[in-house]
Amino acid sequence: MRTPVPGVVGADVLVPLVNGERVTYANFDYAASAPCLEAVRDVLDGALPYYASVHRGAGFHSQVSTDAYERARATVAGFVGAGAEDAVVFVRGTTDALNLLARSVPAGCEVVVFAGEHHAALLPWRHHGSGAGRVVRLPLPESPAAAVAAAREALGARSEGPRLLVVTAASNVTGELWPVEELAAVAHAAGARIAVDAAQFVPHLPFDLAATGADYVAFSGHKLYAPFGAGVLAGRVDWLRAAAPYLAGGGATANVTEDDVRWNDLPARHEAGSPNVLGAVALAAACAALTEAGQDALHEREQRLLGRLRAGLAGIPGVRDLSLWDADHPRVGIVSFVVDGLPADLLAAALSAEYGIGVRDGLFCAHLLTRRLLPSGHTQAVRASLGLGTTVEHVDRLVDAVAELAGRGPKWGYELVDGRISPVPDPRPRP
Known about the structure:
The protein is 35% helix and 19% strand. By secondary structure, the protein is α/β, with parallel strands linked by helices.
């Protein structure tokens, strides 16, 4: 018996169109923020009556919340294959996680990163407070094999000095999967470590620290159907344990005197302040729901929808999708594309206003990669990303809408309003 696909909150919401009609919203913006799972909402409904500050309260609610918070940590650890010797630190999201790691690497650590990374993985190493020394930015590779070869050359012979290779598991622009296991082997052979940005990977496929050989993994709850402001950095403890606390404040402290501060051990060391208890509980609930449903089975369903979408778009004159590698290279449910003669922001606005379809337009916080992949004459792209709430009807509606807009353009008028292309007038009521 096939396991049901986990339901998402708001799947049946009707949205207004500029012509006065209402249609069921077709959400193709999962790669930015995925909607809340119904299972996550239900867990939160049960947790909210007992919500309290954790770890330092004697009251019953505080004890219940502390238990829930630490159970969430254990659930998340299991979700990414973190062992008893690994740290699981709750943060605000992938950006926060990789900035924490950047502040935790040993002073002078050499960092190797590909130019195609999301800004969350590309930028923290040169930012104020990072312990990184030399940062080597590798050009975009022509193939997965070229990525492995470039990493091997950049890391060179085995070194005793601290080095870190940073790589995405799945591109947020193209959805293409990167050869994480091969890159981990290259890093370890050179005496380096590897950190994996799995923000776009874990909502679609299982990830296992031990199986991939990764030393660190970072991801966000808001892309994993738990949009409540929590994320995770999981991995080896030594660099994190030796680093000064990410934030100074209560919770990170073991003892404070007038002359000295003694900091806590992990994970509290990097979780100063009142933790985002409900965010952690929500994230763990999402991990549990995806695990129970079977991520491999969910991925197979998504691949059928992705194939339908890509085939439909490929049949529209003037539509070109973006790929770094071969068009058949494995990928998760993300398609970025352009339509000749139709700016991306106008296309996105028209899809929303005239068809009730939500997509993303722009450079997707991966400017170097997206600009490299854009065909001549285009400055931005449209991204359609799939998730658990995506249906065949959504896919067909998007393909038909793009075909109509590519053929005759928008029916409504659009102007620049507050920095965004918007329908003018816009009669759609807001809730």
